[in-house]
Amino acid sequence: MATTKHTPKASKPSTSTPATTPRKPRAKVRKPAVAERAAVSAPVTVPTPQASAASTPAAPAATPATPATPAPAPASPPAPSSDAPVAPPPPVTRPSRPAPFGPPHPADLRGFRALASQVAAVPDALTELQGFANYGAVFGITAPDVGQLTQRVGVGYDWTMVLSQTTAWFKYAKAQQGMAWKDALLLLEALKVPFGLASTANPALLSQYPAVARLLGAKTVVAKRAAASRARNKKAAATAAAGATTAASAQATQAPAATAAPAATQANGAAAAPGTRAS
User: Fold this and answer.
1) Which of 21, 26, 68, 256 is 20 to 30 Å from 9 by CA-CA measure?
2) Buried b (16+ CB within 10 A) or exposed e, 220-250
3) Is the pLDDT of residue 1 over 70?
4) What is the domain extent for residue 163?
5) 18 pLDDT more than 90
6) CA dihedral (103, 107, 108, 114) positive or negative
7) Together in a domain, 166 and 139
């Protein structure tokens, strides 16, 4: 049996009178007065903390305390620059060496070098030796005189201090010498080319300023002398080698001739013996 689909149709307003249904009685609600309705319907503004803070005048800010002015630090000396020229040496009093002086042979000093610990103990040891009450009783009658001992130990200590100070000064002076000449040679190098061109155009400058010419061309002169010396030595060696070769070849040429002469004489004698004498 076929089923029929019914499409629901939009309901149309009924023109018929609806059936009356019983209504519930409504409770009467009293409307508030006009003033109350205005108060209720008016928007209520709740002050926020930000708004109240904005409305409240801010308290005046505290005046910051004036910081105490620090005392100016003492100006430190400027650090030495590596580009600064080397200062001239200070006045130094150098004692002269005695004229009759000859250094001892190193073999004579072998085994007689004071240790660093001994040198460091000398000042206190000299004080103790000078106050050694029973020096003779402790060290015996063979001990050297205490005055002579302290004098010689003190002299050795003094020369050690002089050598130490001299060595330190020598190292300092050597370093200053190297840096000072570096500064000077850099400036002299800038004068070599102009002076060379000027002396080439005017050779009289070389005789007019010979010391300046030597100062600017000392390295060139030394190099030329060394090259000339090497050339002379090479030429002498070549000449000597050529002479030795010539002498050897001459000896080699003379040796076969001297050997052939006796052989020819013996051959002529042997041929004449069995026959008659030639007329």
Assistant:
1) 21
2) eeeeeeeeeeeeeeeeeeeeeeeeeeeeeee
3) no
4) 116-208
5) no
6) positive
7) yes
